[in-house]
Amino acid sequence: MVLYMSKISDARERLVEAFGRIFKEWGFGFTPGVVFGTLYLSNKPLTMDEIADETGYSLTSVHNSLRILLRLGLVTRRRIVGLRKAKFKPIESERHLIALFINKVKENIKIMISTTEYTMSLLRNDNSEKGRFCFERAERLNRFYRFLSRKVEEAEKSMEVDGIEW
């Protein structure tokens, strides 16, 4: 039984840490990802105190992380009648998480397309070896990110058409 619980604990810890890394990569910070992962893997809504106990983070860190998660629409808050506490739980559908991921990818694609277009406009008439090389690289990147943009749009439409419930 102890080995079984150890496997569950290890698996849970890895998933929570993965959420932390992903949220950090998306620019929201590691801690909000850990808090989200903790809530996502909990079988019941948790108070801030319970989240702090589970994660080892201070109440201030948990509070700030929950504010971010609430703003993103990934967590809901329910007041406990008669107490000055609230319980938090993750959204029921992963749709918001998928939308957040897709929006982050689209933001990065948009940045790269506009940056490569600007670079190409600056170097379009530069006939130096270095200028031509940089222009060609920017052009290749631009084609790649335009291709990626189309694939992301196709994936979004495919999920809608196929009726995938996230």
Q: What about the largest sheet? A: 3 strands, antiparallel
Give the CATH H-level superfamily of the largest domain: Winged helix-like DNA-binding domain superfamily/Winged helix DNA-binding domain
By secondary-structure content and strand pairing, the structural class works out as: mainly alpha
Order of secondary-structure elements: HHEHHEEHH
Described by its quaternary structure, the protein is single chain
Q: From the alpha-carbon coordinates, what is the Rg to the nearest angstrom?
A: 22 Å
Helix content: over 70%
What does this protein look like?
With 166 residues, this protein is mainly α. The protein has two domains: 2-90, Arc Repressor Mutant, subunit A (Orthogonal Bundle), CATH 1.10.10; 95-161. The protein has six helices and three strands, in the order ααβααββαα. The chain has helices at residues 2-25, 30-40, 48-55, 59-72, 95-123, 129-161, and strands at 46-47, 75-79, 86-90. It has a three-stranded antiparallel beta sheet. Helix 5 (95-123) runs antiparallel to helix 6 (129-161). The radius of gyration is 22 Å and the shape is elongated. It starts with a helix and ends in a 5-residue tail after the last helix.
